[in-house]
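subagent[fold] <- orchestrator: predict structure for attached chain, return tokens only, no commentary.
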Amino acid sequence: MKKKNKTKKKEEKKVKIGQMRLPLKLATEIQAIVNHYFWTKGIDLKTLKEKAKKKEIIYARHVRAAKQLLELAGSLKKALKAIDIVAEWAKSRNLDYTIETIFKRWLELDRLKPKEIVKKPYYQGNPMVWSETKKKWYVISETGEWLEFGGKESDIEWKIVK
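subagent[fold] -> orchestrator:
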């Protein structure tokens, strides 16, 4: 005769996030993803809570996407890394992004690189050009003439052009 185990399965504590009731571990991972997403947007946790109370940010709107991202990535660490990659890529191109953007770019995550910062030379507000054949700098005047640069390298002003 077999003995019956009278041990009951522990019921996992469930937490309500948005309209979903989820196990505590899953809920905390989803919250971590949503919080990290807002952090990459430049919103810290304190500000996020204040804006959610004022209903400026609808936190629950991001929960389903965060759950799907967690399932797609397989782990919290991979999901957070994917958010970082897409955030850096989008910010460098002045694009807006959401958690759903990560799904769209999932297959090309390893190829997403931030846009390179290009610095261009200027002299007294006029653009400059380097001539490889003559090994000289030229300043392009407002009228479009190429004037030979006679100053020092330290006189060249490098500006970031977007």
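orchestrator: received. Logging for downstream: The longest strand covers residues 118-123. The chain has two domains: 14-111, 118-161.
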